[in-house]
Amino acid sequence: MQRPEAPKNLKPLLLPTRLPFDRRKRERYRVKEGVLLSPVTRERKYWQMLDLSMGGASFRYISPEDLNGFSEIDIATQDLEFAVECIPFRVISDCELPDCTPSFFELRRCGVEFGALTNHQECRLAELIRQYTLH
């Protein structure tokens, strides 16, 4: 049996060679200036948060820092008016940020996924998104 031929006036459907893949299940929001993230350790280090969702966040930090040694983070505003503490997380991505200015430090961007949140943490994160993100 012969395969039927496509009509001559039909243009082929062009598919992209690579489909974009986004693992995020929830919308991310850019955060306002002054929202910081810190791993829960004895030595506090605060990093600038870039964006946030109910399922995760991204932030920038100065290399070299081993993020795999941490299991919980705190999120707080610079003025300490708002905080969400002891959020379980895991690192999803970690890459160098292209830097436009000369610097002695290597800036990196890290994306994290939150683990199981308590009801209180979920409520606080929702409030953080309402008050401290750019909609």
Overview of the structural elements:
This protein is mainly beta and 135 residues long. The chain has a single domain, classed as Thrombin, subunit H (Beta Barrel), CATH 2.40.10.220. It has one helix spanning 119-132, and strands spanning 29-31, 35-39, 47-52, 56-62, 72-77, 83-96, 107-114, 133-134. A six-stranded antiparallel β-barrel has the order 2-3-4-7-6-5. A hairpin with a 3-residue loop joins strand 3 (47-52) and strand 4 (56-62). The longest helix is centred in the C-terminal third of the chain and has 14 residues, at 119-132.
Query: What's the structural domain tally?
Result: 1
Helical proportion, percent range: 10-25%
Q: Give the class-level CATH name.
A: Mainly Beta
First-to-last CA distance: 59 Å
Poorly predicted residue ranges: 3-22
Total count of helical runs of at least 4 residues:
1
Which structural traits does this protein have?
mainly beta; 1 helix; 8 strands; six-stranded antiparallel beta barrel; disordered N terminus; Thrombin, subunit H; 135 residues
Can you lay out the helices and strands and say which pair or pack?
Layout: E1 29-31, E2 35-39, E3 47-52, E4 56-62, E5 72-77, E6 83-96, E7 107-114, H1 119-132, E8 133-134
Antiparallel strand pairs: 1-3, 1-8, 2-3, 2-5, 3-4, 4-7, 5-6, 6-7
